[in-house]
Amino acid sequence: MRVQLTIALSGLLALPAYSAEINLNLQIPQLNVAEYHRPYVAIWVEGPDQKAAANLAVWYQQKATNEGAGTKWLPDLRQWWRRSGRTLKVPVDGVTGPTRPVGKHALQFTDRHPELASLPAGDYTLVVEAAREVGGRELLKIPFKWRGASDGSAQGSSELGLVTLASKP
Amino acid sequence: MKQTLKFAALALALSLPLAAQAHKAWLQPSQTVLAGNNPWVTVDAAVSNDLFYFNHVPLKTDNLAITAPDGSQVAAQNSATGKYRTVFDVELKQTGTYKIGVLNDYVVGQWDEDGKPKRWRGTAAAFATEVPKGAKNLQVSQSISRVETFVTNGSPNDTALKPSGKGLELVPVTHPNDLFAGDEAKFRMQVDGKPAAGIDVEIVRGNTRYRNAQDEIKVKTDAKGEFTVTWPEAGMYWLEATSEDKKTTVPQAKQRRIGYVATLEVLPQ
């Protein structure tokens, strides 16, 4: 009886009741520096060919200036810039946003995200790159399954803290 | 007199073969990968012993050409020449790749006049009128050399990178503003628009003052005129290739020296 119930339950859970999603916890560490600026952060999905498959988020200074808001410094996110940033016309709805303060940020990206909607299921790498004005730069990678269940994490050592990822089908 | 000396030193620097302790001519942009609204780069132009330090003479920029991403020419701004370097700015109004280059295309003549050696340098057109007919012990050679660098605003493109088909030129297979430490880059050398096989290329990373060896990378172009280089680390690199041939346009000149220099920025991974 009990066994049957479990089977019935797990059968229910396997149904596509939820849309595919990636849950991300990203820590921007407190840094003891004389001049602190919030980091620029890019979060994207890379295929096995290292090409950018989906841009999930790009945080940069949005304040209007005659230099083009903070877009002048976007190439400092070097790998993101190379992989996709330089061909992207920012701002992008649902992708670009303002910089965020020190602390833990819980982020959720579902298959309703403009860049994820058309991404085929499979193995990918999530890449988080952070670059800070008068500071450093750090890049972390976490392999994961899109439209599949996976867990992963990466520990930053300078511009990023702990980044954890959980994906669901 | 001083000016003449400088001029002579420059001519020497640009015409010396690779094997000699040549001075290095270069154009160094403040950065090569840019974005934003009309970003600017400032460029240092100098001839020096060390890379990239100003310790010899400024590079003459009379024949400076800046090719915009759409192939048009733009003017340098705020140009100034000091004791050791020439400086100018470039406003990158278009998105894409700019080529900044100095072309030195001249004839060098030497002959005896009143028992003293006389030197002359000028264009092939001026040669006919300025060098006396029947000059004694006349020795003539032609020289064509390029000093180039590349900067990209936003997404790179290839329009400005098209070779002119004159002299020794670099044709990038890997985009010159897409170079990363640990990656392999491929380039092709051309002479007068045709692939140049067997050309020696020397590549030296900047900051030579802070190390004890040049650590130069030496490569030779293959049958297709191509060579590859895997960048050992990030930095500004100086690339030089020189050669000689007999394709002169002045009948009196028996040989032609061809040279090419590029400054390339390699970014960290």
UniProtKB/TrEMBL annotation, chain A:
InterPro entries: DUF2271 (IPR014469). Residues 149-169 are annotated as: Disordered. Keywords: Signal. It comes from the Bacteria. It holds the Pfam family DUF2271. Residues 1-19 form the signal peptide. The keyword Signal applies. This is DUF2271 domain-containing protein. It comes from Lysobacter arenosi.
TrEMBL record, chain B:
Residues 1-22 form the signal peptide. InterPro entries: DUF4198 (IPR019613). The lineage of its organism: Bacteria, Pseudomonadati, Pseudomonadota, Gammaproteobacteria, Lysobacterales. This is DUF4198 domain-containing protein. It holds the Pfam family DUF4198. Keywords: Signal.
